[in-house]
Amino acid sequence: MNIVPPVAAPGPPPLEIDAELVTQWLVSFLREEFARRKFAKAVVGMSGGVDSAVTGFLAARALGASNVVAVRMPYRTSSPDSLAHAQVVIDALGLESRTIDISPAVDGYLTNEPDADSARRGNVMARVRMIALFDLSAKYHALPVGTGNKTERLFGYFTWHADDSPAINPLGDLFKTQVWQLARHLGVPSVIVDKPASADLVQGQTDEKDFGISYAKADDILNWLLSGYQPEELVQRGYVAAEVEIVRKRLATTHWKRRLPTVAMLSPTAIGESYLRPVDY
Amino acid sequence: MTHVVNLALIQFRPTKGDLRGNLARVTDAFSRVTTLSPRPDVVTFPETALSGYFLEGGVRDVACSAQAFANALNDAYTAGLAQAAHGAHDGVANGSHASIDVVAGFYELYENTYYNSALYATLGGDAGQVVHVHRKVFLPTYGMFDEERFVDHGLDVRAFNTRWGRAAMIVCEDAWHSVTAMTAALDGAQIIFVPSASPARGAWPSPEPDDDEAIAPASLHRWERLVRDRAEEHGVYVAVTQLVGNEGGKAFAGGSVVAGPHGEIRTRGPLWDEAILPVSLDLHDITRARADTPLLSDLRALLPHMLRALERTIANDEP
Q1: Alpha-carbon distance A223 to A151, whole Å?
Q2: Do the strands A96-99 and A68-72 form a parallel or antiparallel pair, or are they unpaired?
Q3: Does the beta carbon of B175 lie under 8 angstroms from any beta carbon of chain A?
Q4: Residues of A with CB below 8 A from B11's CB?
Q5: How do residues B241-265 score in pLDDT, each as one tens digit?
Q6: What pTM value is reported for the model?
Q7: How far is CA A179 from the centre of its chain?
C-alpha cells in the first residue's frame, strides 16, 4: 500500500497574476474613475522607470494615447538613462509630452538650505515634481495619475504627500514583482522592465541596495506578513531572519505614511470617524 | 400554472448618488426587456441597485420603504413600456399592457431601522405591488466590508408564492452560507434569487486555464462554485444578479450567473460591463433533478435529527 503525501497547505495568495485579467480590471478602473470625475485627459509623471511606464500604457489603453500627457521632470543630477527611457515610452505610445527641468526650482529653494542632506534633497525634488504635475493638471484639465506600487507603499519608500498625492492610482495594490509581470504583458520595452529599479534621487542609487533585500524576496515576505503570518512563523518556514526583519521593520514603522493626517477628535461627528461618506459619494 | 419561467437578469451599473439618472436607466432597461421574446416574467436587478453599494453613512440619505421603492420601479416600468411602444429600441413592444415581476436590492428603512433588503414586486398597475421583502441576514463586516455598522441584520429566510410558482430571495453573503439556500429549498422555493454586489478580489491565474470563461477574478470563481453547489444540492435554480462598476477602487466585476438544478450553468454575464441576460427556466427540470438525486427529500426526512444535533451544538452540550 502506497503512502500518498498530502497537498501542501496553500499559504498566502499567489503572487503570480493573470496579466490580461489585471489589464482589463485596471482599464475598467481608469475609465470609470475618469468618467466619474469628469476628466478625459490624464497627466502622468514619466520617470523612465517601470511603474510610470505601466501607468502610461494602461492610461493610453483606457483613455486613448491622445488623452495622455507624459511629463518628464529631470533634476540636473538625474540619470540621462531615465530621461531616455521615459522618451522610449512616450515614443512607443505616441504620447504628448512635456519636459520640465526642476533644477531651478529645487536649487532655488536649496540656496536657503545648502546643508540639506540627500534625503531632504530627494524629498524637495519629489515635492517640486508634484507641484509641476498638479499645475500641468490645471493647464491641460487632466487628472494626475499616481504610479506608486504596493511594495513601495508598504515600505514607506516614497515622499509623503508627494509621490502618493494623485487622486487615483491603478498600481497601488500590485507588488513590484507583479508590476514587472504586468509590464511584460503590456509590451513595455525590455530596457525599462529589465533594469534595476531606482528612485534616481541620488546617482547610482537602486531601490534594492537601499532596502538591503531584493524585490522578489521582499514581496514574498510581505505577502506572508499581510496574510496574517507572524515573522517567527516565516523563520520557522525557512526564511532568513535578518531579511524578514528588514521587511517587518519597514512595514511596522511606516503605517502613518499610508494614512491621512491625524486630526484631534472633539465632537461626536468627527470626519472620517463618525461622519462617514465614501470618496465617490 | 406555467412550467417555464422567463427571466431577464439586468447586470446594472448605477451612478452613485444619482437616483433620478439611475431610474431613467432602469426605465431604459425595462423598455428593452419588454421587447424580448419570450417576454420575461421576472426582471432581476442587483443588490443596492439604484444607489450603489458602498455608502457608509449615506445609507441614511437613500434608504426608503419597500412600498416607495416598488412605486419608483413601477413608475420606471410604466415609462419603459411607453418608451418601447414608441419604438425607442429595435423590436416591437411585446405585451405592452402586461404586468411584470421584479427582484431588486435596496437600502430599506423599516420600522425605524435600516436594512440591506431585496424586494419582489409586481409592476404594471397604479402602484408597485410588494410580494415579499427579504432583509439580508449575513452582513459582511470584514476586510473592505462594514455592513453591520450601517444596517441591521434580517432574521428570516422564507419562500413565497408568485404568479409562476414559488421563489425565495437571499442577498449576496447570505448565499455563502448553505443554511439560507437550504431553508429556502425546504420552504419550497423553485428559484432562489440572489441580488448581489460583490467586489472583485484575486487577480491570480485561474486554476482552469483551458476554460474560455476562466479569465475572472478569483472571487467570481468562488461565486460560481458555490452557486452551482447550492443549486445541485437542493435541486433548485439559483439566479445571481451582480452589480457592475467601480466604487472607490473596489470593482464590481459583473459575472452574473444562473445555475440549474443539476448544478449546470444556464447563463453567465460578462465581466466589467452591463448586460441583459435573458434565460428561460423549465420548472420540470427541478422535478427531474430531484428524482435523479433526491437529496432534498433525504434532508427533509432526516431534518428533525439534524435539528436536534444543531440544538445540542448551540446549547454547547457534551455529546
Answers
A1: 10
A2: parallel
A3: no
A4: none
A5: 999 999 999 999 999 999 999 999 9
A6: 0.94
A7: 9
